[in-house]
Amino acid sequence: MADGTETSTIPLNYSSVQAAHKLIAPHIHRTPLLTSKTLNEILSAPRHNGGKKLKINLFFKCENQQKIGAFKARGAHHAVLRLVEKLGIDEVKRRGVITHSSGNHAQALALASHTFGIPSYIVMPSISTPSKIAGTRLYTDNVIFSGSTSVEREAKVEEVVESTGAILVPPYDHENIILGQGTTGLEIQQQYAEVVGDKPRTSVHHNSLSSHSKDRQPCLDALISPLGGGGLLSGLCVSFSPPSPSSSTMVFGAEPSFSGADDGRRGLLAGERVPHVSSLTIADGLRTPVGLIPWRVISDRKMLEGIYSVTEDEIREAMRHVLERLKVWVEPSAVVGVAVAMFCEEFRRLVPDEGWDVGIVLTGGNTTVDAVVGLFGGGNKDEVADKKIEIERQEGLVGINGEMEAEDVAG
């Protein structure tokens, strides 16, 4: 199959992330890095009677405000631009690009290709969230439905490639995608230094910030990112690796524990990648096994400090706090890092007495009011009953054919 490997292979290192950022910067948003004194207090409080009060100050990278509402716009733009660089715009326009995705990567590739006048073919499982299907159709007329398993998706992709010659741009398992997502980390490093430089008391280390050399950039103690296919987390690991000025920052992954969705955590414990996931976690963007190339990065203990998992109830509670306290619209997948910082005792025990500044990547905000109502059980009984089927569809529980299904690949 013709795919993104038609581009020259770029090494996964810090300088490659810098080059990727320079290339895509005109086409993406530099999303904000927000702080919240209230959430700092909530997360620093003991989680149980007799527990220890911590000092945790959070810095939220709001990729929910990225183009198409998720970080995926970064990798898609980088992959398309590298294709154009390698093959020429006329050749890429002649053939078009294709992917299979249940949502955010689908929208991201449709937007990126539309930006440069390139045809795109987007294979989406019939179980995909209706709002994400609608978002994808804003930028391409070529949305093709398939079954929800990876085998069914890939078969449909092969069929379309056979008739069009389109070039596959994978959701996460490619160097150009990883480097594009890694640009999130570069911005976090720059913005953290800007924020604590302007308002030192946003940092738990405010008393010592003045002692920093002008040549030495202040850096986060830790960064937590959701883990699905691993494009973002592996990209962040690369962007925080030497010679990054923030290479001392510890990078962690966060996953749902529901029904085996914590394949990254389990894989690290077993010493080998878990190849299949079949979970109906509410964090629908994370219902996927870690890709082969991301796994090579995140399984290196020099790159990733660890992976923690959280329950469905903990994800809901974290989402409630982000919605109500930070006033930021997020999807469940986006807040698993918040849930780890809030509830995971294994992570919280790592925080020293002097405290930590912790970066959190809020990866996306592509959900609907009805889906959020369904998550929290709001509305009167009749209204909830009337909307039950639609809410289940938006949570990815029920396919168009009415059957309960689980996905093995997200995007």
H/E element order: HEHEHHEHEHEHEHEHEHHEHHHEHH
Q: Nearest-angstrom radius of gyration?
A: 21 Å
Number of strands: 10
Strand content: 5-15%
Strand order of the largest sheet: 1-2-10-7-8-9
Structural class: alpha/beta
Separation of the first and last Cα atoms: 19 Å
Can you summarize the main beta sheet? 6 strands, mixed
Shape: globular
Rounded mean pLDDT is 89
Q: Figure out the total of helices.
A: 16
Helix content: 40-55%
SSE layout and pairings?
Elements: H1 14-24, E1 33-34, H2 37-44, E2 56-62, H3 72-87, H4 89-95, E3 97-100, H5 104-115, E4 120-125, H6 130-137, E5 143-146, H7 150-164, E6 167-168, H8 175-198, E7 222-226, H9 231-239, E8 250-256, H10 263-270, H11 292-298, E9 306-310, H12 312-326, H13 336-343, H14 345-348, E10 356-362, H15 369-376, H16 381-394
Parallel strand pairs: 2-10, 3-4, 3-6, 4-5, 7-8, 7-10, 8-9
Antiparallel strand pairs: 1-2
Describe this structure in words.
It is a single chain. With 411 residues, the protein is α/β, with parallel strands linked by helices. It is 42% helix and 12% strand. The protein contains 16 helices and ten strands. The model is unreliable at 380-396, 398-402 and 406-410 (pLDDT under 50).
Entry summary:
With 411 residues, the protein is of the alpha/beta class.
Task: Name some characteristics of this structure.
411 residues, alpha/beta, 6-stranded mixed sheet, 4-stranded parallel sheet
